[in-house]
Structure formats: structure tokens, C-alpha cells
Amino acid sequence: MANWQALIREQLEKDREASVKLLQEWVQSPSVQGAEESIQKSIAELLAKMGLDVDLWVMAGEELVSHPYFVSPRQTFEGSPNVVGVWKGAGDGRSLILNGHVDVVPAGDYAQWSDDPFSGKVADGKLYGRGATDMKGGNLSSLLAISVLQKLGVRLKGDVIYQSVVEEESGGAGTLATILRGYKADAALIPEPTNMKIFPKQQGSMWFRLTVKGRSAHGGTRYEGVSAIEKSMLVVQAIGRLEKERNDRLDDPLYAKLPIPIPINIGVIEGGKWPSSVADLVKLEGRMGVAPGEQMDDAKAEMETALQRLAEVDPWFAEQPVELEWYGARWVPGDVAQDHPLMEILQDKFAAVTGERAIVEASPWGTDGGLLTALADTPAIVVGPGVTQVAHYRDEYIVLDDVFRCAEIFALTMLDWCGVAEGPAK
Amino acid sequence: MANWQALIREQLEKDREASVKLLQEWVQSPSVQGAEESIQKSIAELLAKMGLDVDLWVMAGEELVSHPYFVSPRQTFEGSPNVVGVWKGAGDGRSLILNGHVDVVPAGDYAQWSDDPFSGKVADGKLYGRGATDMKGGNLSSLLAISVLQKLGVRLKGDVIYQSVVEEESGGAGTLATILRGYKADAALIPEPTNMKIFPKQQGSMWFRLTVKGRSAHGGTRYEGVSAIEKSMLVVQAIGRLEKERNDRLDDPLYAKLPIPIPINIGVIEGGKWPSSVADLVKLEGRMGVAPGEQMDDAKAEMETALQRLAEVDPWFAEQPVELEWYGARWVPGDVAQDHPLMEILQDKFAAVTGERAIVEASPWGTDGGLLTALADTPAIVVGPGVTQVAHYRDEYIVLDDVFRCAEIFALTMLDWCGVAEGPAK
């Protein structure tokens, strides 16, 4: 039997320089929502060169946009194609989806970044830029896992389906479209930035919009009005209390180390139109975490109750209740059994490659894994090389060694999961 | 000697229906900043028909925009002409400016209005719509004071200068332009909405913008970031404390009846870009009241100190101090002696017309009066028929009887202040 691990590591080392250059190019392509076409085309070309059956398409159609799991701020996706490449197996093996998104969140305030947010700069073994960690580095690990096996002359028994999707950051319409197009497998890996922790459970989340009302007046007699800005602070406090209640009662040991396992984040505030008028309307937008195993409708009901209780804090809210709207993105929570065979293989390979025991936790955020598990009957496990703490953050980076270590773990996992039909060539 | 008061009242009554129709047309013209051309042209035509020397011009030029008292979000004013009409006196009398602005603040949330904000609807003796009170109703009082005297065949000794200006709501560039064009007088009346209280002192005010910083992170691990939205609440509280300090020490008896004589209003909040990211920047915009007699620079310094003290509340602000910018509008405080001859005439006429004693107070907001007093050597007194409480407010209205009562007081005041050369015709 071949010493797979040594062969794989050696080959990855040989390709390392070219691989880093590829990741740089990916990060330098600022693929925020609506601007993914360039990177997707280059990925499709690459997959075709590797001999995969490539499917590049712009998702569309009534079945997609009217699907109960469809959430996106947009209804049409020109300029944002999906890409899937299938590495056909010889047959008689278990298939595996390697799913990853190419859309990245906006860079935020450029001035807070030490470099251009899309620099792709390499320094001290790290590669910097928006998307490096979330999740172009992980996508590279998946791609390298395939290419390294190919270069070693391996042919697997089961199919490997490489998915480069859009719209993850706004709720998973890209992955939903792959499911509706018929892609499924016996299991899936999603290399979201977990610091190589293994997440069989993933937190779901939902976006909400709150409308807080005030009553306008001249700023010079502001006591004649009611400031929606001041009232919105009471709303933010109430959301904080709800977050605390929901997290205090959570006793899943997989979440034990997280300060706030299922956070409620208020990310956007906007209100008032004139400095010297009392603001009569404030809009708050945020995301509410949903625990694995929790029904999304139950979480929604808790939010409604918390807002209704505001009338006890301030009678103004009895007169002018806060309006609640669930809009935009939604991620279904995911839940794969801890003794699933792929979980065992993964932990085994992790230990072999790193010499350490894998950390198994539940993810603090939603991923496309929930959709694959719930809709496509494809149990999805989330594990990847990115640095969780810098996702959606200024000076986002990834540690390059981790990318290659993940590729090694994934390649070894594929050998066991999909089975080996041929190779390695000598 | 003619019974002026009876003659004036009778003539106003005769013209009442046409006058109300005119005010309706004015209110139906939604003359928010940048959209004043239509109403100004119609006012210029009207003044010309009344025989006044009419000056309609679009203000411009280096002298204006580089003037230390110039404040405006814009530098050019196409579509927003000023209008001045001079009713020349026979000579040897005191001149009087009747100043009023035609710009109105935006309507805010249309849904909170019972009718279209620019309906001009008349019901129960009130005329409704944005600008009815602030201050098209008052402008009509000034216009009627001139026209009623003309119709009675009066010719005054002193000039009466009717000024229909733009840009009052953003800091007085319109009135500044009239001053730079050479208009001044022995005194001025400004019929801003005072509920017919007489304001020899006017509060000044300044606009400010605060930039509150956070640190971005993924909403699902929001504890890794610092929310600029949460920090902005501490800033709003600090502004509240500053407002209280400044008002607690104010002992001007003219302000005794106001709950907050010199308010600080935060009118606009805006921050964060993505519901599931921690907001790294929040912008707050507001207006700070300045007491009559207070130096604007002293008020600015107090705001700076209050923001610096935030570091004692939360060490985050030592690391990331709130940025303060004075921008946009600024109104110079005004201060006319309570025993000024025009004050005496006004109080006398008020008593004659209403049978009541005039209330003399200090205004809770800035007006163009500060500029006229400080720059044009034209002591300006603010008194007008509008309802203070509904200025900048939904369902703004004016009580029509008050408009005509103010016209009567102004006409009588003009007879005494400017002196009568001819009339009335029998």
C-alpha cells in the first residue's frame, strides 16, 4: 500500500508556489455580490483543464425564486454564474460534494484596512484580503485535494463534485440552485473558515428589519416630538436581553466554548432625515442566530414577543409598536450525527496530518450546509482552514500552511470515502 | 385721525377669501431645498403687480461662498432664487425689513401625515401642510400688511423691504445674500412661527456631525468585533448629559417657561452596511442650540470636552475617539434690547388688536434674525402667527385667524414705525 500521506504532501509542496499565486488571483478578484463573473469563469476554465465535466450557468426561473428556501435581495443573477465541476469516479464508490462560495462581503471602511482590501498580499506566511479566509482559501484546499490526487495518477470510485457557488453571504440561493439542478451526493464538505475545527452542527440564521417610530418636531423644541433614535436604543437593549435569554438556556456541549453561541447582531441602523428635526423613523437591520435543532418559526416567535414586551419598558411602544419584517438572507441550521462515517474518517485524517486531536464543535454561523443536509439529503460537514475571527473583518487573512494542511486532510479523506479505483502511477 | 384699526380689519376681511387661496397655492408648492423657483417667481410677479421694485436673483459668487457666515450644503443655487420687493417710502421715515423664508424642511415619513403633506387643505379654520406654519403663513401676514395699507391709499415715509429668501432652514445663506446685495433697514420683523410671542432674543444653533468607530466582525462571532451602533448609544447619552448641563445653568428669565431652552438634537443616524456584520462606523448628525450672548466657539469647545470625557465612560473611546465636525447650517444668535422702540410699538399694537398683553420670550431656535442684527446693523425681532409645536412636524398647520391678526398688527406697526406720508383715500 502506497504511503499516501507522504506522496500527497510532497506533491502539494511541489505545487505550492503556483497554488499561492492562484489564491492571490482569486482574492484580487473583488467578487462581492453581483461581481462574481470574472472569478467564476476562470474557475470554470481551470476545472475544464483538469478534465472535470464543467457546468457554468446563470441560475434563473420560477422554481428557484418561488422556492420556500429561496432568499436573496435579487431575483435575477446576470453577472453571477454558478460553477460545478464533476470528477467522475470509476463507479461503486461513495460520492462527495466539495462546496464553497466565491461571493465575499463588502470590505467596509477601507480606511481601517492596513492595505488595499483586495491586495492578496503575502507576508509572514499569511495571505491578506477580503475573502482570503471566507472562503477562497478553503476553496483552494478543495481544488488542491482533487488536483493532487489527479497528479498522483489516482482515479476514485465515487464522484467528486466541486461546487463554486454564489449568494452564500445572502442566504444560499447559489447552493439551492445546484440542488434544484440535480446535484447531490452521499456527503459534503464545506471548507468555511473554522480554524480547522470540525462542525457537524451549524447554527442557522435569519435576517430581520425593525422599524422604530417616533414623532417629528423641530429640533429647537425637540421636547414636543419623540425621537425614534432614542427609542431605537431601547429596542437595541431589548434585543440584547433576548440574545442573553436564548443563549443562557442553550446547553449543547458543542457550544460550550463560545461566549455567545447564537448571537443576534444588529448590523445596520438608519434614521432621521434632517439634523434639526426630531427623527420620526429608524430602521434597524440584523441577523438572528438559530440553534441546530431549533425551528426557525419558534425563533421568530421569540423575537416578536421580545418586541411586544417593549411596551412594558416604555408606553410609547404600546402606541407605536416596532414593526418586524423577516427579509433577505436565511440559513437553515445543519445537524449531522457525530458518529456519521465521514466524521470518523475526517477526525482520523486530521490526527494523521496534524498529530493532534480534532476539535469538534457547532458553528457559530449559518452555512450552505443546512440546505444540502435538509433539501438534498446530503449530510454536510463544515471544516476549513480559514481564520474565523477575521471573516467579515478588516485585514482578513489566511495562514497558507493551513490551506495546504486542509488539502492534505481532504485528499486523504476522499481516498477513504470515495474509494480508490486506480493509482498512484509510479 | 383715521380709525386705522377698523379700516385695516375691514379691508383684510374683504380680501380674506383670496388671501387664503394664495396661502393654499404657496403651501401646495413643495419648496424644499432646491425646489423654490416656482413659488419665488410667483411671489416676484405678485410684488411687481403691487408696484414694488422687484429684485429676483440667483445668489452666487466668491464673496458669498467664502463669507465667514456662509453655511450651506451647496455652493450654487440654480433653481433657488431670492426675491426682494421694495415699497419705496416718501422719505424721512424709518425703514423696515419684512423677512421670511420660503424653503421648507422635508415632509418626513408621508405615512404619518393624515393628508398629503402638501395638501393645503382648509378645515376648522386651519390650513394644513408642510410650510403652512414655518413660515408661509407668516410671509402672508407681511404681504397683507403691505397690500392692506396700499388698498387704503396709504403711502409711508420709510421704505418697506419685503424679503422672500431661500436657505433659512440650512443656515441663512439666502438672507446673507440680501445683506451682501446691500439690503438693510432701521429694523426688521421676521414672522417665524412664535404663536405670536415676541422674541427680541433668538437662540442660535450649529449643525454637527459625529463619527463613531467600531471594529467589524462576522455577526455570528460578533463578540470578536466592536459594534459602532452600541458605542453610538453611549455617545447619544453623553450628548444628553451635555444638554442637561448647559440648560441647568441657564438663568435668562426669557427662557423660564421652556423645558429645554437650548436643546441639542440628534436628528440623523446612519451606520453599518450589512445585517450580519458588526458595524464599524456610525454617523450622527444634529444641531446644538447656542444661547443669546454665548460665543459660538465656547459652545463648540463644550461639545469637544463632552466627547473627550467619553473615554472615562468606556476606554474604547480613548482608543477610537469620536470625530466631531461642524458642518452645514449655522444660525447666529440674536439679541435686541427689550426697550428698543420697535419692541414698544409691537407690544402696543399687539394689545390693541388682541386685547391681551404680548408675551415676550427668547426663541428656542435660530432664525435669520441673528444675521440681520449682527451683520446688517438691522435689529431684528421675531414674531409670527405660526404654531411653534407643529413646525418641522407631521400634520403641520396654521390657524388662519392668527395670520390675519398678525397682518393687522404688522400694518399698524408699520404706520407708527415708518410714518404716514399720505392717505387713507376716502
From TrEMBL, chains A, B:
GO molecular function: hydrolase activity; metal ion binding
Domain Peptidase M20 dimerisation residues, every copy: 202-312
Name under which the protein is recorded: Acetylornithine deacetylase
Keyword terms of this UniProt record: Cobalt, Hydrolase, Metal-binding, Zinc
Residue ranges the record marks as coiled coil: none
Cofactor: Co(2+); Zn(2+)
Sequence similarity: Belongs to the peptidase M20A family.
Cited Pfam families: M20_dimer (PF07687), Peptidase_M20 (PF01546)
